[in-house]
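To: structure desk
From: M.T.
Subject: fold request, one chain
Message: Could you run this one when you get a chance? Sequence is below, nothing fancy, just the single chain.
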Amino acid sequence: MARTAPLLSLAAGVLPEFSPEQTVAAAVEAGWPATGIWYAPDTWTRATTMAVRDRAADAGIAILDIEVIWLKPGPDDPAHFAAIDAGAAIGARNVLIVSSDDDPASTAAKLNRIGHHAAAAGLRACLEFAAFTTVGSMERAVDLIDAADCDNLGLLIDPLHLARTGGSPADLARVDPQRFPYAQFCDAPAHGPPPNDGPEIIREALDLRLMPGDGGLPLDELVTVLPSDTPLSVELRSAALRDDYPDPADRARALLAATRRWFAA
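Reply: Done. Structure tokens follow.
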């Protein structure tokens, strides 16, 4: 039975070797209704903002998210707030956060400040968990969001990270659905590297994801448990996809076709 596709967005990680300007151009050319944008503080300029904003606006596509704010031990990083401001300037809806800060109180305090800054800028701040970060499970992410005490904080679900941290789509039923402003989407084998093999877990996440339907993740269950209108950022980081489609628009087009086939099946 065919499924109704929500808003689909080209994740920035699909095109890691290309600039934000090239990413939005590829998304437009391939026919995506939305895209994500990677923020690199050392190379982002006012010209980047204008080019991304104007190309997306002219084509009528949404900027679903800007990434990534990576929390680390120590004081606040001014680049994190600059990323939010850049996201606001290009019209992004969400900003993606991950953490390597192993101090829960520090992490929660940073999330509070980032969440409030994002709220003032008109973005939702979303925390993603993964086995290779200090937020190694959905439960840990929910605890941190609760401790941060900021209504603007959301929870970002990636089906690969959910599976590799021992979770399942059924776990989402215990979370307020308002905490899911969007989610990520990809496929992978049902079983991955051993839980203690950090390098292989990272390699799988960066290079070995599969097209929707080509793996064994419970994608049907995931889209069923999420609110039906939850936008999906198709986060398909894949060395094979990069090798097979060196042109960014061709890669974006192939991924969109495969994702739409999955929803139509």
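Reply (cont.): Residues 208 and 238 are 5 Å apart (CA to CA). Let me know if you need anything else for the meeting.
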